[in-house]
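User: Some background: our group keeps a shared notebook of sequences we're curious about, and every so often someone picks one and asks for a predicted structure to add to the entry. Today it's my turn. The entry only has the sequence so far, pasted here. Could you supply the structure so I can complete it?
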Amino acid sequence: MKLNLPDKVSIARRAYFSVGRQAPLENWPPRLRLPHGYDCVLTAYYDGSVPENNGMVVNIADVKPALAQAIAPLDCAMLTGNDEILKAPPSAENIVEFLWKRLPSQVEEGSLSRLILQVSSRLLIEKTPTIMRLTRKYEFAAAHRLCSPELNDEENATLYGKCSNLAGHGHNYGLEVTVEGTPDEAGFI
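Assistant: Of course. Here's the predicted structure to add to the notebook entry:
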């Protein structure tokens, strides 16, 4: 039985590592000038056609050692003052660029198509062969009241239910801001 597969598929493999840094530049925020670290999650994507002989773009077991080798110099390393590793300021963007260069561009039938480095629950960097994006996530709460000025409180309560509460009610919102660009000499987009 022949499967009807798409022309291209992606596989993804995650790796975890911890890295430390201290902001070397005066224009970095004061809280980043103290030594600090991150527990990072790196996801590498390989795209390709599914060969008929084995049905795998890439054997996921072959990607694991490539990821381990790529992150090895970073894991548990203090990057600030260690020019042998990054050869650039230790920004998240420069870490992604470093990892992109260390990973094999081809594994079996798959081509490296995307890296996502999650530095925290609120910051991630995405790199493809042509672009780099930085996404920051923000959460906030806001309150409001649903009511019509043409209606009295009882009519508003009937129409809008608990959302017309005189004290208002609130919601939690998530906002993601993404910028795309090339890192400057300090390592930031």
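Suggested note for the entry: Residues 16 and 41 are 5 Å apart (CA to CA). The first strand starts at residue 9 and ends at 21.
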